[in-house]
Amino acid sequence: MDREGFSRLELYIRQEAFVAAQEARLLEGGFDKQGFCGAGAGTGWVERYCSSMYLPPLTPVLFLSLVATPAIAAQAPAGAHCGLGAEFHAGRRAALLASVEEGVFVFRGLPETRDYTPFYQDKVFWYLTGVESPGAALVLDKATGREVLFLPQVTQNFEAWNGEQWDVADPWVADLTGFSEVRPASELIGVLKELTDEKTVLWTSRHPHVALAGCFDRARSFNRRQEGDPLDGRTSREKALTLKLEEFLGLKARNCTPQLSELRRVKQPEEIEALRRSAHAGVEAMKEAMRSTRPDIGEWQLEAVMSFIHRRLGATGPAYHAIVGGGANSLVLHYSASNRRVLDGEVVLIDYAPEFDHYLMDITRTWPVSGQFNQRQAEIYDAVLAAQKAGIAAARPGAKISDVERACSQVLKERGFGGLIRHASCHYIGLEVHDVGRSSKVLTPGVAFTIEPGLYEQSSGIGVRIEDVVLITESGCENLSAGAPRERAAVEAMMAEPGILSAEVPVAPR
Predict the structure, then answer these.
(1) What single-letter DSSP state applies at residue 52?
(2) Domains along the chain?
(3) What is the pTM for the complete model shown?
């Protein structure tokens, strides 16, 4: 342990000893030990002490020891883990460094949330570190191979309200993450000045921050609208970082987003495993929604059933906001209200899937509320299914996404439904539901993307979309979500099985 670390530890021990002494002193005075000032319903010893008329000279020190003392933990808190494993994230950093000839990279994670929603790390920062902690930063130096993780100091008071956090002083952080150098976040600029001079190539990511259940294309569009708004004009966080670093260091930063996007486009084995887990939960939830569907059930109830199955099977959360549309709502591509009952004679279209360890699934199925397809529903459904099968057959190494798109649309047009096509049939998937990558790139093993042809007939109120995630293999592709029924007979058979919302359970009013 270095001198600074020893001094911090010595200070911590002294402060802890002082708190213990003050506690004993209060107990001797008749105060009980339960409760905490402002945090509990009862009147505990700290609350009564804080509000008492007698304030001994050392009270401010006691208060600071409770509020401002860094929280140092000897071992990682229960459940703490480094993303998909320290080796995976180290490999991604090494691949990024190998993609350039020279330079220093700078990345920042997100700050703590402004409300009480759970913290969710920036996609790019998580991909490179596996660190799920606010206020972190990363510096990579190509010349020396130096990797520095920066973490903030966390107070005991913050942890009292938010649980155990990753702290720069925690000795287990280096072992868990694989970073040999972990430094206080306040030292970021100082380290950068050590590593850079007027000839240094500085790299930053311009990839827009993607919120939970979002995607980069919408985030980028939002940023442009906000920056162009004459009554707002705020720049994005990633752009602000680049501008500030250029100002502080006197350098012109380059954009490493293209290199990162290509790395993310081809999935590693750990990423594929996360996608498989996500697909399994998504498939089982879709099957349960089919079983639970009956006339007059609420869209919100089908959404709730699927959310329950996702979480029951270990999903981190939703991959995106649920699209559960019955009747005319099946025509709305990103319908999100889920506030209508589905009726006999209609179809219900559900586009909803979970997330596992930041990796997202995207599954859509459409089925008749009655349990049996009528003639027009069957005609449209069969065309969409045939189009998807053609797309899956076209997905193989050496092809491009445009080849898959063409295969899907050709079937729909040949069957006379060209006028009912309203969207493209493919997009990459991974850390984001519309993941990064250029559609002009040749497909190679490890690339994952969706195949989702759809038809939308306004006059009949029938919207049909069938969507699966495929993974390119050495010989073709694997449908990761094939377990959710697609054939009409299989869909109808699944609907005939009893579900969580069985006929004996009354439909709740809305």
Answers:
(1) S
(2) 3-67 (no CATH), 86-265 (3.40.350.10), 269-496 (3.90.230.10)
(3) 0.81
